[in-house]
Amino acid sequence: MNEQNKLISRRLKNDAKLFENKDAFFGFVLEYFCKYFKIDGASFFEYDAENSFLKMKLHLRNGIIFEDEENILITEDSVLNASVFEKSPLAIRVFSTDFLYIPFILDSHEINTANTDNSRKERLGFIRLEREAKKRSFSKKEMDLAQNAVRELTRDLYKAEFVDLNKRYSKNIMAITELTEIFATSLRVNESFKHILEGVQKYFGFDRARLYLVNKDANKLQGELSVDISGRISSLSYEEIPLEVGGHRLADIILSKKRNPFFDRYTDCVLYVPLVIQGVNTGLLIVDNMLSQQKIEESEFAMLKSFAGQIALVVDNVKLFDKVEELSLYDELTALPLRRYFQERFQEEFYRAERFKQPMALVWADVDYFKDVNDTYGHQIGDKVLKEVGRVIISNLRKIDFPCRHGGDEILILLPQATGEDAKRFSKRLLDEIKDMRIPVSFSKDKFVNISLSIGIATFPDDASSGDALLQKADEALYWVKSHGRGNIALYGETVRKESK
What we know:
With 501 residues, this protein is α+β, with helices and mostly antiparallel strands. The chain folds into 3 domains: 152 residues, 2-Layer Sandwich (Beta-Lactamase); 161 residues, 2-Layer Sandwich (Beta-Lactamase); 162 residues, 2-Layer Sandwich (Alpha-Beta Plaits). The protein contains 15 helices and 20 strands. The strands form 4 sheets. Strands 1, 2, 3, 4, 5, 6 and 7 form a 7-stranded antiparallel beta sheet that branches. Strands 8, 9, 10, 11, 12 and 13 form a 6-stranded antiparallel beta sheet that branches. A hairpin with a 4-residue loop joins β8 and β9. α11 crosses α12. It is globular, with a radius of gyration of 27 Å.
């Protein structure tokens, strides 16, 4: 990146840190691009991998930012197909307008339940710049500058979202302290929901209270818990109601765009109370006297209506608390730092090595045939394998070394002030200790399972002159080991680079 790029990226980062949520963050990004690049419009898209289309989230035109509806279908013959899957920028002209699409990775706080390792989803975002064709087209210099600026900006997106979560979480904590004693609950999901329902049932004396929550990802209304007049708690997890108009009366209550008639007018024995926070339905509380057939009095309806917002705050706060915990810096299973934390440290250490002209090594390790272990012995044994690997790695680190669980069974280890030979000696200790490990498997023939590691190493400055290049070279060295029998060590300069000559 040249000096001009650095200056602009620094300005963008400093200004963007003032924003504490994603929409404000990207709104600022669009405004800045329109101003700096003298363009006619800018948009922010997210890629929907399941349905293969780009979905517009924000659009800026004539100085006004608004939510627009534009979905761009990505097919195999689409000009955007390569940009999506190769994550590369693309400049195209459509009729009288030039478009520049700039892809980037959006850090996700959602667990990918489709993956056996519970890794987080990788989301792809796009910034699209628009310029009328009567003006000049996007130059190569502008493309490079825009791509570098987006890369710099999105490094701060995770921090912005995290700060927003914490701010909202703290705000909700303050609101909860003002609730009555029946809502002064713990911050654990099951306990909180249980106390909410117990409090409602006990305070109002209803025969039954039920709680349903909106699952946005699955587009369903998910049953949670039910409590009856005897105090018995029952799970409603088996109830999943698709949020489709006309499909179910409860879905219609949630999806109604008008003020809900069930909320405005109580019935004799059943009351439906939507839980709304900031105009968004997060769930549904249902109370009834179906067993006693006792009429629900209007005063009870008014009281419960006044509590609905507070209950919604409790439910929302419980969800936020879980998200904040999920964003912790360390992996619970291996006790290793997570990838996001590593990326921050990696940038700091690389800058230090560059400035003081010190060597640095990056070790990229992969557990051999880990999928086979999971498939053969089950995920509990696979978890034990990862836990033991993490323990061995931690026990061999110096104070200045920094590891992370990169995802699944891959582990990165940063070795500041270490040469290639230092890294090889360190890696050999890991290989030897892990080869000697025996993971107990009581139901297997041998009563244990052996594991091994494949390790790729790259060094600065011998193998790479930038952080991204160092990661790439370590990954290539790891791939070389895996394609040459596994269970070994490869230093990039002694293997991959030598073979390519």
